[in-house]
Amino acid sequence: MSNADPWDRVADGYEASAKPVFSEFAAATLDLVDIRPDQNVADIACGPGTFTTLPVERGAGVSAIDFSARMLRILERNVALGNLDGVSIHQGDGQDLPFEDNQFDAAFSLFGLMFFPDREKGYSEMFRTLRDGGTACVSSWAQLSLCPLFDVMAQSITRLDPSRRPPKYDISSLENPNVLSAEMRTAGFENVVVHRVERSFEFASADRLWHGLTEGSAPIAVMRSRLPAAAWEKLCDDAVCFIDSYAGPFPTKLGATAWIGIGRKPVA
Predict the structure, then answer these.
(1) Could you check whether the bond before residue 249 is cis, i.e. omega within 30 degrees of 0?
(2) Segment 95-116, tens digit of pLDDT
(3) Would you tell me the crossing angle of helices 148-160 and 218-225 to the nearest 10 degrees?
(4) Do the Cβ atoms of 92 and 116 come closer than 8 Å?
(5) Residues 14/47, Cβ–Cβ less than 8 Å
(6) Ordered strands of the 130-141 beta sheet
């Protein structure tokens, strides 16, 4: 997940299917941080701008950066359609930000830094570009046992593809809120608090659930790219049948849990 190609592949599907889920967590994040008019905000690994436009609506300026050109084209389109002022868009690496030191009042990486090959660099760059007293916010999904919505997809894939190992809770990843808190403190942030945010979503059918999850999923895009078209279609048919029995009856609601870590850069 550390290169742009899988994200380019799913950009359109992400906007249509995954963004409504992510938008709930973006809104919850903004409720946890006091963003004021005329502040300067960074949105790191911004994708199609699920979070980007929210601080703008409060009068803030946002510098949005992502390495996926197709995600950024969607963001550009949405900014133009919304006639939004105050958004600057950059293609680049969150581990090597093209921004000046002490530039931002707040910096966010929602479900982005969790994929960085070198998370330490991600935190370091966020710290460098924040002004003294600035707010840092990093979010990650919790383990699958707390995310039935994603567990359904994981279970269906591993049962249908025996070569894939069942996903396990990685205690060293940001699935673990203690790791998120510790890494932010190690990066130099103080007053770190990790918030637990849960949301539920209703799905009308197993088919809508499967396609809604997979069309915007970069990991699924990688798997799909390795399969012949006929094999992929069969996998989808089998997955829908499995989901219907595993998560039904439909319509049904499934939840997801995120950890949202918030800290501040000390005042020198």
Answers:
(1) yes
(2) 999 999 999 999 999 999 999 9
(3) 10
(4) no
(5) yes
(6) 87-91, 61-66, 40-44, 104-110, 130-141, 252-264, 190-203
Which residue did the predictor score with more confidence, 4 or 3?
A: 4
* Single-letter code of the amino acid located at 260: I
> Token pair for residue 116?
């960085």
Closest CA to 163 of 244, 226, 243: 226
Tell me the backbone φ, ψ of residue 142, rounded to 5 degrees.
-80, 175
Percentage of residues in the chain having pLDDT higher than 90: 74
The reported pTM is 0.93
CA 19 from centroid of its chain's CA atoms: 9
Q: Which two tokens stand for residue 19?
A: 């963004």
Report the C-alpha gap between 91 and 24 in whole angstroms.
25
Query: In Å, what is the CA distance from 127 to each residue of 43, 70, 106, 223, 245?
Result: 13, 27, 10, 35, 47
pLDDT at res. 129: 98
In this prediction, residue 220 has a pLDDT band, given cuts at 50, 70 and 90, of confident
252-264 vs 130-141, strand pairing mode = antiparallel
C-beta of residue 19 within 8 angstroms of C-beta of residue 50: yes
In total, the chain counts a number of residues equal to: 268
What would you report as the CA-atom Rg of the chain, rounded to the nearest whole angstrom?
Answer: 19
- CA torsion, ordered 70, 223, 157, 251, to nearest 10 deg: 30
Place 216 in a pLDDT band, splitting at 50, 70 and 90: confident
